[in-house]
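Hi all, posting the design record for the shared folder.

TITLE: backbone redesign
STEP: 1 of 1
STRUCTURE INPUT:
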């Protein structure tokens, strides 16, 4: 991967709640994976487990929508959180807790993301800026 494409991806990632959308999509995918597990623990409720497949599929879709349409992140993240909590009942305790936790954490990260926020500076960068202002050599 060239440095130009890496910088382009970094810029694209910085313009959206990347980690929130990714975690929500991974949570939905993990729950879908546990639905297909060949375990005796797997539960199927309703019309052959329709809700067990519908909720994680919507979680996966909402995670992708957060990534590719970040302007509507508030609606998508609230809906994703409700769906994540709903998988507790419909999809093997939220994919054995892992998918539930990934979906909830991703939804919270997407909800809290601010688009016009200055990037965080590391401790070294802040220290160098203070040293430059004081006239000390770095």
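Okay, here is what came back for every position:
SEQUENCE:
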């Amino acid at each position: 991967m060239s440095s130009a494409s890496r910088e382009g991806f970094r810029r694209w990632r910085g313009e959206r709640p990347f980690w929130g959308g990714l975690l929500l999509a991974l949570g939905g995918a993990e729950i879908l994976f546990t639905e297909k597990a060949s375990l005796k623990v797997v539960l199927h409720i309703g019309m052959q487990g329709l809700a067990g497949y519908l909720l994680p599929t919507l979680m996966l879709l909402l995670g992708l929508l957060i990534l590719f349409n970040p302007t509507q992140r508030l609606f998508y993240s609230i809906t994703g959180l409700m769906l994540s909590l709903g998988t507790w009942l419909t999809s093997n305790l939220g994919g054995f807790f892992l998918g539930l936790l990934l979906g909830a954490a991703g939804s919270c990260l997407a909800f809290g993301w601010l688009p016009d926020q200055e990037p965080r500076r590391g401790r070294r960068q802040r220290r160098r800026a203070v040293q430059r202002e004081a006239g000390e050599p770095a």
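COMMENT: The chain has a mean pLDDT of 86.
Let me know if anyone wants the other runs.
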